[in-house]
Amino acid sequence: MRDALAGPGGARIRWVEIDGTEPVRVCVHGIGSQAAAYFTHAMSLPPAAGRRTLMMDLLGFGLSDRPADFGYRLEDHADAVAQALDSAGVSGVEAIGHSMGGAVMIVLASRRPDLVSRLIVAEAPLDPVPPPPPGNVGVTTFTEAEFAAGGMTQILDQVGPQWAATMRLADPIALHRSAFGLRAGTRPAVRQLLMALPIPRTFLVGALSTPLAGKQELEAAGVLVVTVPDAGHNIMLDNPHGFASEIAR
């Protein structure tokens, strides 16, 4: 495990690293997840193996610190990853992000183009995430105090054992603020940021997942959209060989 300064009060981002050749690959997880748990298998398979890979936990999640005075918006997470990469002396990376981590990597590439040479996002939210429909319970149906006091326990009970295994490692405040950060999105929206980037960009969609909205618009902007078979939202877990092959390609 390695770490670098990344936030207020000396907060540190931590990651599990695989040795290999340059350029560096940096993998960032989705909300309530943890990078090594989601990426290690796929990134160790022959199509993707052999490259130096940093499987990095966002502040508030997994192994990283949990600063209370941190905003946890997409821009905040992106700036923290940038600070960690600067502290680690790493630039020009191949940025790989899943779900919320994909949105974070898009924002990172937009705000710090020197740090990202290529972008691969899997099932990233490109538009602000709407609140849960009436009658449904989600992270953003609670106030911050309610979520910390017992709402997180309720969410852990309903998300299923796989997601709960990593979500329970998250700081409740970080999880709550990150969920509201996804609801707020960015300005311009993450979708517009992705289309405007001048670097190679790949968007991975699970064949069993929700169809990608605005696919033709993304492709017209030069984004390579790839459907990975036998996979839902968690592509690297559902079809690690397919995910590794697309990373290598």
TrEMBL record:
Organism: Rhizocola hellebori
One Pfam family, short name: Abhydrolase_1
PANTHER family per record: HYDROLASE, PUTATIVE (AFU_ORTHOLOGUE AFUA_2G14860)-RELATED (PTHR43798:SF33), MONOACYLGLYCEROL LIPASE (PTHR43798)
A GO CC term attached to the entry: membrane
Gene3D superfamilies cross-referenced by the UniProt entry: alpha/beta hydrolase (3.40.50.1820)
Record-annotated membrane-spanning stretches: none
One Gene Ontology term of the molecular function aspect: hydrolase activity
Keyword entries, A-Z: Hydrolase
Official protein name in the record: Alpha/beta hydrolase
SUPFAM superfamilies the UniProt entry points to: alpha/beta-Hydrolases
Segments forming domain AB hydrolase-1: 26-129
Keyword Hydrolase: yes
